[in-house]
Amino acid sequence: MTYLQERGRLAAFLGCLFLCSPAQAESPRIKILSARAGYPDARSESGAPIAKFGMWIPVDVEFELLGENTELLYLAIDTPDSDGIQSSLSLSLNVDGLKPGSTFRRISYVRPASSGETTLTVQSANGTPVSEPFRLRSLRPRDSLTYVVLSLGSKLPNFELPRPGSGDTESTVGPLRGGRVELGAISNADQLPDHWFGYESADLVVLSTSSPEFLSQLIGRQRKRAALTEWVSRGGRLAICVGTNAHAVRQDPTLARLIPSEISNSSPIRSVSQLPLYWQARENSQSSTLSGTLAVKSGSFPVANLNANLAARVVIPPAHRGTETKEPVAIQSAFGLGRTTIIGFDLDRPPFTEFPRQAEFWDWVLRECGASRTSVGSEGKSRQPNAPPSDDEDEVAVALRSHVDTFENIPVVTFGTVAFLIVLYIVLIAPIEYYFLKRILGRLEVTWITFPVIALTICVLSFLSASSMKGKELRVNKVDVVDVSAGPEGRVFGTTWVTVFSPRIDQFSVGIIPSEDWTKSPGESLVGWLGSPRAGRASLLQRKYAYQTDGDQIADRMIGVPIQIWSTKAFVANWTGRLDDRAPVVDSRLEHPVGDPTKAIGTFVNRMPFEAVTDCVAFYAGQAYPIGTIVKDQEVRLVLDHGQPAPQWFQERGQLADLFSRAQAFGGAAPAGSRSSGPAVAPSTSFMGLPLWGMLFHEASLRNDEGVVPRNASLRRLDQSWRLTADNRAEVIVVGRVAPNFGPLGTLFGGSESPSRLQLKDNGQSVPGFARQETYVRLYLPVK
Question: Of 292, 516, 550, 699, which residue is least crowded by CB atoms under 10 Å?
């Protein structure tokens, strides 16, 4: 037998072993027919689905069952995060009762970064693939500066916007405002997210109720309605168009909760032949009010009969036009951290679709129902349709991420020092070694010994020096923003940013939940990575971690997150819980004086677990009233006299310029990209934390100067500037911060000074370390 024959038999034998291996033995039992990640583009059938960097989106997947199946299957979606590390989210697929050849659909979720391929695979309970991998190549996330309008129930025909600074109307087919405003649409209720974070990429959701089929589907799917409601309560912005089917909307309890008004019981709608409209113009407009008349040539059209409740405000007509049009056409109110606006006619049907000023009215919808100044076109940078992902991001997000990724009192090795040491090393192993071996020893062949000795010595010294400078203790920085809604529902909402510095190569389990001091009934928590579009790319080594799913809880924990030696990894969490009815952390006892609904008097009881909350300011009816420090278990009496306009207060004392300066560097230390760290010693007492006033009320902190645009694109939901209006007399907002705290990780994050609990574990065991905690609180106190 020849040598080639032997090699051929060996290759055939190895090939058989490969084909018969356990991973390949099972034939596919299910097939992924199609998948769409993101919101369908309403203005282009061929356009890529709409998604944004670092924000969750729904994935609509269609399957075909190929054979009999008796076990629970899982859909695994793998996608890289901002550091190029693969993340995996698995959701169960229940195919009981389905016969081979059946097709079905499921909704899953993914959080895309700027680049990398997203892969879908169906697996058995032990992780064995039972389908061919399906690769999503059309997922091209927009940057966070994009303003996304998501329409539910309609594609909003003739959706138009006026060009900023002109009276011209933009085309209905081209990009809106330089590609910075995108319109998505979901017309089938089955494709709606069934978890609230499926709407995270949307800045404004427009719910159209004109289609009886869509409305019937929505009313029949409780989880879909609950997801939309929860998204709004966590800071979402929703506009509900109610005309033809006002009676059906009024009868659904979930939708009725979202509506900031009462639809008449006896007569939900009225039929009119024309409807005069007056709406607020932009601040820089020559006129304060725009107007027009909806009219039909013959017959009539339906308009909902709306009645504003005590906590709502009429936005159409504006207050100064109320005498001309008595019936309210649009009403708005807060819903948790979000806001809802009900518009009493259909925006996707005549006569509005034939309205000559519909572009100006849509501009009002984006401003008044969404983000006022951002909807002009975000930060003013144009974007081409279907352009590849960019690395644009907002300065507020950069400042916040740089801050939590910076550890004070840490010696930083500058680039100049590193370059000098590299040159010194090259000189040492080249001319100096050559001179020593040639001139002194006279034996060049000894370089086979001296060269590796020098290299090894340098490596050991470098490692020891880095260990001495960077320390051997795990360190964590954490910032919490806590919003307490003391209204009838009594909820607490939290957003947490945290960075973990690891002194060694390790894998961690990361979870964040509310503290038991704030809520006895914790709600759904969502944990994810925090990163930049400019972050690193995938390494040669395959690294991977998984999101935990537990029943209806999705991504409430990250398992097996790898962190390299002397490196950091940042995370963000969104959590909530219900206040204890018997002893809520805040108890409002505010009311309007008899006969004067414009004033607010009374007290509130502070039971927050902090010893003191400093720099407190109360905001009421568009005015700011500094109240100083409040302490634990104190009953605070509000004296709302001699106020200052809220925008003026924020522009003078909100420290927005200081916040923006942190986007470059913080306290002279290295920014996040340097990955430098050092010994775990307590910071100096001069550390005052990050000024977040300009993030919590961003648009109010901006001056009305030419060229001044918002810089908070990825954090728009936290901006509560829209509440600071003169006609918002239903609540008092108290804002303050807690002095930064430092201490052992377990003690600090497990104590009363931390509103959230960081569950950081290594191989199932809690890890020791040193931590820094910063907290801001906002209290929404109802006035009865």
Answer: 550
Which residue bears the tokens 């959590």? 575
* Ramachandran bin of 645, using left for φ above 0, alpha for ψ from -120 to 50, beta for the remaining angles: beta
pTM of the predicted structure, to 2 decimals: 0.89
Q: β-strand 261-263 against 475-485: which pairing, if any?
A: unpaired
Q: Which amino acid is at 661?
A: S
Q: Which residues lie below 8 Å from residue 272, measured CB to CB, with a gap of 6+?
A: 300, 301, 303
Angstrom distance (rounded) from CA 198 to CA 187:
16
Give the whole-angstrom CA distance, residue 147 versus residue 235: 15
- The 10 Å Cβ neighbour count of residue 162 is 17
Give the residue among 497, 669, 660 at the shortest CA–CA distance from 570. 497
pLDDT in tens, 720-739: 999 999 999 999 999 999 99
Cα separation, 164 vs 142, whole angstroms: 21
For 592, counting Cβ atoms within 10 Å of its Cβ (0-12 exposed, 13-18 middle, 19+ buried), the class is: middle
Tell the residue number behind the tokens 């995370």, with chain if given.
571
3-class secondary-structure state, position 423: helix
Q: Which of these, 419, 454, 746, 775, lies nearest to 609 by C-alpha position? A: 775
Rg, C-alpha atoms of the chain: 30
For residue 679, cis peptide bond before it (omega within 30 degrees of 0): no
Instruction: Provide the angle, in degrees to the nearest 10, between the axes of the packed helices 212-219 and 222-233.
Output: 90
In this prediction, residue 66 has a pLDDT band, given cuts at 50, 70 and 90, of very high
Asked if residue 557 lies in contact with residue 510, where contact means CB atoms within 8 angstroms, the answer is yes
Contacts (Cβ under 8 Å, ≥6 apart) of 599: 592, 593, 640
DSSP conformational letter for 121: E
Strand partners, 74: 92, 123
Query: Picking from 62-76, 84-98, 409-423, which range would have the lowest pLDDT averaged per residue?
Result: 409-423
